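Structure first, sequence second, as always.
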């Protein structure tokens, strides 16, 4: 990590602003209880700072453009309890932002500058009525009230074009997150057995992450045996892995804020049963065909349409449906999403692919009445000539999975 990278990102954002336009980004607050602090991803993208509570402003004033950072002030009596907070000099050194103020100066300074602004791009919070507003939401609401001449818009217009095209350093982080996730998946495939709890499988991957220096998940892991694999967002992971089931792992470690997102489905027995294998092969064929289509200019919608076509044909053959229109009963999501700082990263689900995008390709077939769910997911980089599968080394061929399981059960 170097500050030039963050300076460069902010320069790009500032160049996309017209005079009188500003970007206002709030860092996440320090969470309570047992939760770790995870930084707000846009704030992290533009500053690299894992500082809770901080605020970033990037503004085009007409003749000049500038970035301001607001951070917590050290309270001498609190240092013995909480440790020292980051000093201004250090924040400048790490982020390259020269203008650093304390948070208790935010209201005064923003009030002074707000009159010369027209548009503010900031978070669009959706907080249900009855729930308390966050501090950031309160400030945005006050800005709207006190400066009615300001118009507000979401961060997407400024942030999405930048974040959806990954830089080499970002790809390195993603590759690391993918590789450690793959190692953990291998640990699970090598060591899981009938009768274990799903969370015991989870712990094998988590152990692999922690002992290699990866402290955070990119998202809550899904470890689903048998019927649980047919619940798309199953994350209780608290059931026993029964005999002869398929186990679905939808998991991803995070590296410096960048998420992997991998799904593998494997038999807990030595071999797939015939029906399991037929369903598995249909999903794998779909996935490989869709991955093969990936290149700049292809739309995510086209990828999904191809997936639907192949999966529908398979469902007819598998006698799951008799009418093509009914495919949604067994494939109810879409083919994938952009991946990056967020697991569901910026970039629309109907976007047209360009060089530097990273997307997931994750078809599935879910049959609750047979307690059988299969999804296979890889992380794919769009390159000038086509694509590169960043998770190619994580086994998914039926033969390879059966060999792994046979070796695991022979131990
Ligand atoms: Mn995914």
């Amino acid at each position: 990590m170097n500050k030039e990278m963050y300076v460069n990102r902010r320069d790009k954002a500032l160049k996309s602003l017209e005079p009188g336009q500003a970007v206002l980004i709030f860092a996440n607050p320090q969470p309570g209880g047992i939760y770790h602090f995870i930084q707000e991803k846009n704030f992290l993208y533009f500053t690299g700072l894992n500082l809770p509570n901080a605020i970033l402003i990037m503004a085009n004033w007409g003749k000049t453009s500038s970035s301001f950072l607001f951070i917590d002030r050290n309270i001498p009596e609190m240092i013995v309890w909480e440790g020292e907070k980051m000093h201004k000099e250090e924040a400048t050194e790490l982020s390259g932002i020269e203008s650093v103020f304390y948070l208790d100066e935010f209201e005064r300074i923003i009030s002074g500058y707000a009159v010369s602004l027209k548009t503010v791009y900031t978070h669009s919070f959706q907080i249900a009525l009855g729930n308390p507003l966050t501090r950031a939401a309160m400030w945005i609401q006050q800005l709207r009230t006190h400066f009615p001449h300001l118009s507000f818009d979401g961060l997407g217009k400024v942030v999405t074009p930048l974040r959806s095209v990954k830089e080499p350093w970002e790809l390195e982080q993603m590759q690391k997150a993918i590789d450690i996730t793959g190692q953990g998946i291998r640990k699970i495939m090598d060591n899981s057995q009938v009768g274990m709890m799903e969370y015991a499988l989870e712990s094998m991957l988590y152990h692999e992450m922690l002992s290699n220096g990866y402290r955070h998940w990119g998202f809550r892991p899904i470890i689903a045996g048998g019927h649980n694999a047919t619940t798309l967002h199953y994350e209780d992971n608290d059931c026993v892995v029964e005999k002869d089931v398929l186990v679905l792992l939808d998991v991803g470690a995070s590296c410096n804020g960048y998420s992997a997102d991998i799904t593998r489905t494997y038999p807990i027995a030595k071999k797939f049963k015939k029906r399991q294998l037929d369903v598995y092969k249909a999903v794998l064929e779909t996935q490989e065909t869709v991955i093969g289509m990936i290149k700049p200019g292809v739309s995510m919608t086209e990828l999904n349409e191809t997936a639907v076509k192949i999966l529908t044909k398979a469902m007819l053959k598998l006698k799951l449906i008799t009418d093509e229109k009914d495919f949604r009963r067994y494939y109810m999501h879409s083919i994938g999403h952009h991946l990056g700082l967020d697991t569901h990263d910026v970039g629309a689900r109907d976007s047209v692919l360009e060089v530097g995008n990273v997307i997931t390709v994750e078809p599935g077939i879910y049959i609750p009445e047979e307690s059988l769910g299969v999804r296979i997911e890889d992380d794919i980089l769009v390159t000038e000539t086509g694509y590169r599968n960043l998770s190619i080394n994580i086994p998914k061929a039926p033969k390879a999975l059966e060999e792994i399981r046979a070796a695991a059960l022979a131990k």
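Margin note: The chain has two domains: 3-163, 168-410.
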